[in-house]
Amino acid sequence: MNRHAIALRLAALVALSGLLPIVLLAAVGLQILRRRGEQASTEALTAIAAQASARIGMYIDQQRETLRALAMAVGSEPDAARRLADVTLDVPSLGRLRFIDPQTPAQSLPPALRPEQIARALAGTEVASETYIRELSPAMDVCVPSGRPAHAVCATLDLLELQRQVQRIRVGQSGYALAFDRTGRLLAAGAGTLRAAVLSGEPVPESAAAAQLARSGAAPSRLAGEGGADVLAGWSFLPDLGWSIAVEQPADEALRGAREALVVLGLGALAALVISLLAGSAIAGRMLAALEAEARWRTAGRIASGLSHDLGHRLAILNQIEQLAATNDPDYMPRIRDSLASEVETLRKFVADFADLTRVPKPDEFMPVELNAFVQSVGATAEPQGQSARVAVEAATAPEEIWVRGDRYLLERATLNLVYNAIEASPPGGRVRLSVRKENGRALLTVEDRGQGIAQDRLETLFDSFTSTKRTGVHVGMGLPNVRRIVLAHGGEVSVKSRTGQGSEFTLALPAHSSSSSS
Amino acid sequence: MLRPLLVLICLAACRPARNAPLFTLRVAVSGSLDRVGPETTTPNRSALAQDWVYEPLARVGEAGEIVPALASKLEVAGPRELRVWLRAEARFSDGAPLTFEDVATSLARNQLRVRRDGESLLVDSDDPALPTELLLARSLIFRRAGERFIGTGAFVVEEEDQSHVLLSRRQRQPGRIDRVRLQAYPLPKDAFAHTLKGDADLLPETESRWLEFFEGVPRLRTIRAPGTHANVVAFNLRRLSRAERVALVHELASDKVRKLAFGDSCPPQLQRPASEPPEPVPARQPLGIVALPAFERFALAIRRALGERGGDVRLADLQGYFAMVKNGDFDMAAAAPLIWPPVMSVLVWRTGAPSNVLGYSNPRVDAALDARDWPGAQRALDADPPAAFVCTTDRIAVVDARIKNPQLGPYDLLETLPQWEVAQ
Questions:
Q1: A82, A87, A91, A169: best mutation site toward chain B, by most B Cβ within 10 Å?
Q2: I want to staple A503 with a disulfide (CB 3.0 to 4.6 A). Which of A267, A405, A450, B315 is the partner?
Q3: C-alpha A306, offset from chain centre
Q4: Chain B residue closest to A90 (CA)?
């Protein structure tokens, strides 16, 4: 993973961990707000419906009161019929006034009153019909006592004013009012497209709710309105007239505030996330670069320190050899030759360690490697070193073939490094054992010794660069880090188990392959 | 290289859209429908479509004058004679050219005689009470093809029965109405309701009191034009003297009566009583008023204006009403005669004219009408009034808002419909 990807991942982690709880909290808050908003909208619509009902009720009362006053004032006059006819000019809402008596022909009686109601009216009781549609607007027949026995004054109240009042009610952009009779028939509509139903008597979606309100006193506050649209509704009922007034508004419009807040929150969160990612990624990238530079300097320092220490040691030895050579004493020549040979060998290993670091594993060039043969080869290679240290090197194979894919040279360098370390850690007469096995699809190569072991506090940093404490003059602390680098490049991992005084066990775990095929 | 490309782009952009949907205007009418013929009369609502299928030689212009229609030119040739030149390119809908014989046959149905005179035709009427120019404007030109009548108008009849009439434009014109469908409903209320509901796009002859129901219906718009009928109080000329009638005009042709009876929906008529009040007429028995039920409020307003002299208001159906008027069984009658175009006065007030149901006769009025001196005729009428003119009710229609230039015809309500443009 490169530095940019690490920076992006870090930024995403920070941004999500910071934003997510806030977004969740806000979403919950908005849902509560939405619910409260719906409740508040319904209450406001109900209040408007109640006001409209009150106005309509008052209007009807005024009309009836006017009719009563006219009947009492004119009804007992000899020219009552003519004077009542003239009233139509001044109070058109009372329609055509009729002065009736028992002899009035049926076709001249108010059309919506039943015979028993007419009889009661002539007996001096005020009667009123149900609301009905006359021509274009609602109407109601009312008869009041005239002040003359067996006579009554009747009017057909033109409730066009009801239509006007309903039509005047506007809520938001598209909210309107509707008025129904007790059967759910539409009497007046604020919505233009529904007005045809006033005349035709066709039920509208709200008719059932209006009839329900008249029957049970309750109606739903959220229902499917015209065209199936989800609407919020406030209801009011006029018990005397049996009318229901509904004031409704599309839910989308009523709850637009909460919805917009949700959208704003979503967009805000998204924007914050993007900004966090961009800014976080840039900042993390810069920080990682700084850390990397610092680490590079530290590494360079460690390398410099190691190099100066080891090369200084070598230099001191070479200086001593030079002093011996300066004596020109032939007796020293064998010693000088051996020392020079030893130093050349040491410096060769030194250079080889660095050369290993420069070789980069290339997965495209990996080849099949059979580990049984491999450990036997490595064991054979290390045997001379073991013999010089009087440590036995054993290679134990598995009963079946175990294949991995890799750079054989680098795998050998890594394994030899572990074996040489094990030899160095083993006391004379000791034993170093290489073994292979297959476990859970992985090929395991183990190097174990019975040496002094590694202190627990060093195990965690054992594979870090330039942390070797051996400082024998041939180690600059690059061996184990190089082992880890090689194993990781092969898709594997390296682990160590060690107990002080009992020895150590290094295991290379590599992806096992089923066969020697190169694919 | 670029120029030809631009030309191609322009040509492509200017080319009319292929297969653009036909625009059908649905017209809601109340009453019965029948065949759309050149002689269809008003009770049959198919008469609305006459002007789209047939054309007259001349029609009534915006100012009430008679202007050429199917004729290319008109001239007054004598007191009751007009010289007419036919449009050379005029064709019937079946492609046949317009001939002298077609014109003669068509005009004969309206008591008009026609004869050739060089390249023009001379048209005249025998009856001085039947103005030639008005009859010419009312005579639709047709040709018979078997049982069918063929016209020269913009539309042809595709289907017709009692419930609907479907007309389609002879030659499609981009941005214009392609088809018109008359839809019959039993009552005006039903036509109104179906227009509100969206089943129809045009409601002709809408009453002003209906208009508020269309508020908040963006699909529809209201259009108005000055009325052709006046609301008048007609006098019984045998019962009321000239002096009484002049005095009554002063009392009745007032804003008080107009507003009480019609509110603001009826602009005042141009006729005005004398500025100085005439001599008061001695009180006698109250004056009775007859009216159709639709005019009850008008009759009550008249009675109130007359105060103590206002008599009984008698409401009667159409038959009873005309019987009372014909028999002279009335003092005053609420009526609505045609008063526009001005030449219509000849039909209504000239001695012996067919629409002169009051039997009015005034040589000064006759002379002015014969001379086509409309202001002079009006002055003569004012001096010896047969009626008090109260106001003229606007003609109103409700039409689909997609129509860009809806305008009612100066004479026939929807005669301009073929020229209406449709928003694309």
A1: A82
A2: A450
A3: 52
A4: B260
- Shortest distance, CA A144 to any CA of chain B (angstroms): 23
- Distance from the Cα of B219 to chain A's closest Cα (Å) equals 9
Q: In this structure, are residues A419 and A432 in contact, taking their beta carbons and an 8 Å threshold?
A: yes
Distance from the A101 Cα atom to the nearest Cα atom in chain B, whole angstroms: 20
Domain B55-150 has CATH 3.40.190.10: yes
Residue A189 makes CB contacts below 8 A (sequence gap 6+) with: A163, A166, A167, A176, A178, A179, A195, A197, A198, A204
Q: Is the residue at A100 inside a domain?
A: no
CATH of residue A422: 3.30.565.10
- Select from 3.30.70.1730, 3.40.50.300, 3.40.190.10, 3.40.50.2300 the CATH code of B20-36+42-48+153-226+395-419: 3.40.190.10
Nearest beta carbon to residue B216 from set A164, A192, A196 = A192
Query: What is the DSSP code (8-state) at residue B281?
Result: P
Neighbours of A264 (CB within 10 A): 11
* Domain that includes residue A403, residue range: 359-511
Bond before A399 cis per omega within 30 degrees: no
Q: In the beta sheet, which residues pair with residue B156?
A: B168
For B189, the closest of A92, A136, A191 (CB atoms) is A136
Interface check for A200 against chain B (CB to CB < 8 A): the answer is yes
Query: Which amino acid belongs to residue A214?
Result: A
CB B191 within 8 A of CB B199: no
Task: Mutation target for A interface from B196, B207, B262, B306: give the one with most A CBs within 10 A.
Answer: B196
How far apart CA A248 and CA A177 sit, in angstroms, is 6
Q: Which amino acid is at B89?
A: E
B210 interaction partners in chain A (CB closer than 8 Å)? 136
Q: pLDDT digit string (tens) for A464-514?
A: 755 555 544 445 467 888 889 899 999 999 999 998 888 999 999 999 987
Chain B: residue whose CA lies nearest to A200: B193
**Rounded distance between C-alpha atoms, residue A132 and residue A157, angstroms:** 10
Candidates B189, B215, B300; nearest CB to A88? B300
Write the ipTM.
0.77
How close does chain A come to B348, measured CA to CA in Å? 31
CA-derived radius of gyration, chain B? 24
Q: Which residues are B55's β-sheet partners? A: B141
CA A409 – CA A415 distance, rounded (Å): 10
Q: What is the mean pLDDT, run by run of 10 residues, along chain B of 424 residues?
A: 54 54 95 85 80 95 92 91 93 94 92 92 86 92 91 95 95 94 93 92 90 88 92 94 90 88 80 59 81 94 91 94 93 93 91 92 95 91 93 93 93 93 88
Q: What is the pTM of this model?
A: 0.69
Report how far residue B141's alpha carbon sits from residue B151's, in angstroms, rounded to the nearest whole number.
Answer: 7
Q: Of the candidates A191, A195, A199, which has its C-beta nearest B189's C-beta?
A: A199
Nearest by CB to residue A136, choosing from B210, B296, B313, is: B210
Burial letters B255-265, b for 16+ CB under 10 A, else e: eebbebbbeee
Q: Is A488 on the interface with B (CB under 8 A)?
A: no
Which residues share a beta bridge with B75?
Answer: B83
Write down the CATH superfamily of domain B230-392: Dipeptide-binding Protein; Domain 3 (3.10.105.10)
Question: Sign of dihedral through CA atoms A178, A181, A183, A187?
Answer: negative
Interface membership of A499 toward B (CB under 8 Å):
no
Q: Could you give the 3-state DSSP secondary structure of residue A302?
A: helix
Query: Interface of chain B against chain A, CB under 8 Å?
Result: 189-190, 192-194, 196-198, 209-210, 212-219, 260, 296-297, 300-301, 303-304, 313
The answer to whether B299 and B289 are in contact (CB under 8 A) is: yes
Question: Which residues from chain B sit within 8 angstroms of residue A89, using beta carbons?
Answer: 260, 297, 300-301, 304
